[in-house]
């Protein structure tokens, strides 16, 4: 009887040793898999600043060409972004920034007359929200005047005057992204052809990003 008890204890000890060894192996395998996963993901992720490093100079050069004063502030430079997405975002972000400089930021004397500093500011921010990449571009320019936008929509024959009065802010904003639609009074090398924001929105949506425009009128 005592021999059976001894063998039972011996078997339990061996079984416990094997279970402990199995747990340690499982733990090491999980850590190895997790490390490999992070390393693979890491090779595809790059800091946001790598994809936008040329933007500050582009903003300065274009502002100088338009005789404006504009500075670009980039927030979230170390936010990690898939390198393929980062590469595809460069062109649409460039177009949106150019549009902001040309249409949004006023000339220095106009800004001073409104109580603003002569130099306009554009903020470009990248962050992760709820597991998704969020990129925000905002400026302290004059914004979009809805009455002017509504008038332009009617003038181009896109809707009737009566219909235009029934459109809310979000619905009016959607017209800005239509092909060949522009609120510019004249066509230049920079804008006025009505293709910039349309192309930007299309390219952004191709990489799975939601494109939205929010109105923030003339904030000082």
From TrEMBL:
InterPro entries: Bact_Chemotaxis_CheA, HATPase_C_sf, HATPase_dom, Sig_transdc_His_kin-like_C
Pfam families: HATPase_c
Spans through the membrane: none
Domain Histidine kinase/HSP90-like ATPase span(s) in chain numbering: 88-219
Origin: domain of life: Bacteria
Keyword Transferase: yes
Gene Ontology molecular function: any one: protein histidine kinase activity
EC number: 2.7.13.3
Reactions mediated catalytically: ATP + protein L-histidine = ADP + protein N-phospho-L-histidine
PANTHER family: CHEMOTAXIS PROTEIN CHEA, SENSOR HISTIDINE KINASE CHEA
Protein name: histidine kinase
